[in-house]
Amino acid sequence: MTLPVFMFYLLAAVILLFSVLTIASRRMLRSAVYLLFVLIGTSGLYFLLDYQFLAGVQITLYAGGIVVLIIFSILLTSHISHKFKRPAAWKLWMGLTVLVFGSGTALWVLLLHPFSKNPAVKDVPVDMHLIGNQLLGMGKNGYVLPFELISVLLLAAMVAAIIVAKKEKK
Amino acid sequence: MIQGLSIYHFLVVSTLMFFIGIAGFIIRQNLITILLSVELILNSVAINFLVFNRFLYPDQLQGHFFSLFIIGIAAAEASVAIALIINIYRRIHNINADNVNEMKF
Fold first, then answer.
1. Contact (CB<8Å) A99/B19
2. CB nearest B87 (choices: A4, A23, A164)
3. Which residues of B touch A41 (CB under 8 A)?
4. Structure confidence at residue A87 (pLDDT)
5. Residue A60 above 80 pLDDT?
6. Would an 8 Å CB–CB cutoff place B23 in contact with chain A?
7. Could you give the 3-state DSSP secondary structure of residue B96?
8. Inter-chain contact B32–A74, Cβ cutoff 8 Å?
9. What is the pLDDT of residues A102-138, one digit of tens each?
10. What is the DSSP secondary structure assignment for residue B30, as one 8-state letter?
11. What is the pLDDT of residues A40-59, one digit of tens each?
């Protein structure tokens, strides 16, 4: 077993274990911390796939930004020591049924489907020059339009978040 | 290409993560833990895009950019959702999804 294969199994085990713990833990702060481990494991998978830039974005934005935001909101809305009641049995069974049958169906279809790569397609190394040129390019393989759209979306989300969370005037 | 790993290895992980997220979405009642499940779902989809890009079309960067945009949209969605949750908490002092059944002012 080579090192990448070993790392893949380790990361997969970490990701699956902590995703189950995220939805199963009855303390909310622990759920958020388990989600942090899932996201860091995912960025490990991105490193394994040779997308270093996206792995860095994943760590800074997801693990650094979103999880901290979620932890702040947990601290604002509930006690640290608060422990949830067990979920209702019918809800638990419904969730587990969806988990088993959904993943069973999806995996069945997926493992029977032959993914074939066009052999003429060559690997290109992903470096920062290529990413920058394509992200702001307007020709073929250019992504400047979605880039601008998402900047408008982020501005709108920022304004909306401030207005919604702001205290009303008496 | 990574020696010894096929596309199926990665897709099995992301599929299981996706359905764990959906199960959490159904089982949990607290709005913030529902948000955590949504983050799991978005994350698994981003893994899928990257894996298809790396294994099937490694000459382009489409999956890479779509994952980047998914991460950006997840950040926007989380910030707006948390603002809404804090506003709901101010009104009814509770963020249980069962108690948020009237959305009017």
1. yes
2. A164
3. none
4. 78
5. yes
6. yes
7. strand
8. yes
9. 999 999 999 898 888 777 777 777 888 888 888 888 8
10. B
11. 999 999 999 888 999 999 99
Please state, in angstroms and rounded to a whole number, the distance separating the CA atoms of residues A18 and A125. Answer: 32
Residue A137 token pair: 């390019």
Please report the domains of chain A, with CATH numbers, ordered by start residue: 1-100 (1.20.120.1200), 124-170 (no CATH)
Q: Indicate yes or no: CB of B32 within 8 angstroms of CB of A23.
A: no
* Cα–Cα distance, B95 to B82 (Å, whole number): 11
Q: How far is A94 from B22, CA to CA, in rounded Å?
A: 11
Residue-wise DSSP of A4-42: HHHHHHHHHHHHHHHHHHHHH-SSHHHHHHHHHHHHHHH
Pairwise CA distance, residues A141 & A130, whole Å: 11
Judge whether B96 is closer than 8 Å to chain A, CB to CB. no
Q: Does residue A101 have a pLDDT over 90?
A: yes
Measure the CA–CA gap between A18 and A21, rounded to whole angstroms.
Answer: 5
- In whole angstroms, what is the distance from residue A17 CA to residue A11 CA? 10
d(CA B100, CA B103): 7
Burial (Cβ within 10 Å: 0-12, 13-18, ≥19) of residue A146:
middle
Nearest CA distance, B42 vs chain A (angstrom): 11
pTM of the predicted model as reported, rounded to 2 decimal places: 0.90
- Reported ipTM: the value is 0.89
Second CATH level (architecture) for the domain B7-99: Orthogonal Bundle (1.10)
CB A57 to CB B68 under 8 A?
A: yes
Domain ranges of chain B: 7-99
Contact B9 A110 (CB under 8 A): no
